[in-house]
């Protein structure tokens, strides 16, 4: 059984190298002494063929021996993440609706044509984009400002940090209940506060031109603590000399941050941006709990809510799958460059 | 010369105190901003239905200026919320605990195999793991429904064969889904930790002929304890807080297997009107486990989200 497994791993990864396989397998079965041999080989650092092939044997051995640790999860991921995404694309090309099995014999792009001509889907795509961009930018800027304040050598720093990050530990469903109450037309705090300066009251959730802004504001409340934590870690990593040098130059504090410190937060900004956008794509939970049920959220439909409604409420599975592919493509457009950036910088 | 330095220092100190006052004022305003919804929710959860509309949303139920004969305070909303949500809390624990432990363990194994052992095609495999973090779950929902449809009702009545009632099949499905989709983030969290681990001990153990399994069990696993704390807290919060999978796999707030998030989302919808007192009490009941975890392990939580 173990031998079969070893072979399977080999054929999966080194399939093309067929001829080598036999030799390497024998090497593997050489057992523990290969390890000590390998150790000597690394020390030798020579360029002759013998050393090189022994090194290769070592690569192969570790590959096979470590496979039980990572291969089963990898297969699980391959099926549940990549397999299902591929399957989802396939379903989006069918006319599958309702229960039973999709008919894979007749594939076409009908569902995408339908999505492109559906003003609700187009609006949901626009809303998704607005939500992604506006929420991410506001949460980044706001979180950075908080991080700078917290980083100014304050007392009770831990307490402040704990409070600012607290909303992040709560479920979208819970925070949606809170904000439903905050935005209440008659008794909500938001209307009470803006009433002090003579504005409102506004029906934040019911008014289709206000609801998206209201949602973005609530999401910023929930996640700017996260941005703060990321920026705080990045600020702490900047050597004190940079602050000192700016001080000696006589730069004002805002100027020092803008010219010297903020540019050094680039990597933190990139990683926070990606994670915030992922949160925004998951805002489904928040919207669902906020507007309830499968009702179309008035003016706040995003692709995530539209997809679930089409697939699970209207049982237009293929249509829902197509909307999901569009959403996935948007996520990939954000995450793809990030992953490539991390990959080329060897940051993974 | 020296007097000039002196005055400059003095003015600096003077500006510093003014600046300090402004700094703490700003921090205090931020505290108010971040706590306002929670505070408003908490006071509202303690009010009677008439007090909810009759008092200011941020004011406690006992308010000197209230025109109500009673002070409007009640624990009745908590009682009702708990009656409605208790099963949900139990169901959530039923899948959140095993799914958290399983995904953390698997993440640790995976990260070990991909970080502390060198082999050739490691990086491409790793990229696939990292990319898994960023998948919008909508992109897998329809096939996932199909998988569980086949397993439970269709060609393969697996859950029935295993003696699990179809109501509780949803719990099993939630464990599978949360473990499968939690593996990427757990792997990356452990990887970042293993990358900074000193490898000298591992290498010498290897040279002494220890197998990878032995190295993991004897050295890596015991050293992973701090990261296990981070990952377990992070995963528990994520799994407990999730609504989407619960909605898709359990589907109805009235199901006996409905998790607490699903119950809470259904709380407002199933009642006439909007009973904000009940909603707020329900929100606190549903949030209690993660709040407790957060208050007790705030540092580890922060570490988890920042990585």
TrEMBL record, chain A:
The family this protein is said to belong to: Belongs to the binding-protein-dependent transport system permease family.
Chain ranges of the ABC transmembrane type-1 domain: 125-338
Originating species: Halorarum halophilum
Superkingdom of origin: Archaea
Pfam families: BPD_transp_1
Gene3D superfamilies: MetI-like
PANTHER family in alphabetical order: ABC TRANSPORTER PERMEASE PROTEIN
Descriptive protein name: Sugar ABC transporter permease
Membrane spanning residue stretches: 69-90, 129-150, 162-182, 202-221, 268-291, 317-340
Biased composition (Basic and acidic residues): 18-27
Entry keyword set: Cell membrane, Membrane, Transmembrane, Transmembrane helix, Transport
UniProtKB/TrEMBL annotation, chain B:
Membrane topology: Multi-pass membrane protein
CDD domains: TM_PBP2
UniProt KW Glycoprotein keyword: no
Taxonomic source organism: Halorarum halophilum
Protein name: Carbohydrate ABC transporter permease
Domain ABC transmembrane type-1: from-to ranges: 89-297
GO cellular component, one term: plasma membrane
Location within or outside the cell: Cell membrane; Membrane
InterPro entries per UniProt: MetI-like (IPR000515), MetI-like_sf (IPR035906)
GO biological process: transmembrane transport
Family: Belongs to the binding-protein-dependent transport system permease family.
Entry-linked Pfam families: BPD_transp_1
Membrane-spanning residues: 21-38, 93-114, 126-151, 171-194, 215-237, 276-297
Keywords attached to this entry: Membrane, Transmembrane, Transmembrane helix, Transport
UniProt cross-references to SUPFAM superfamilies, sorted A to Z: MetI-like
Gene3D superfamilies registered for this protein in UniProt: MetI-like (1.10.3720.10)
Lineage: Archaea, Methanobacteriati, Methanobacteriota, Stenosarchaea group, Halobacteria
Keyword Transmembrane helix tagged: yes
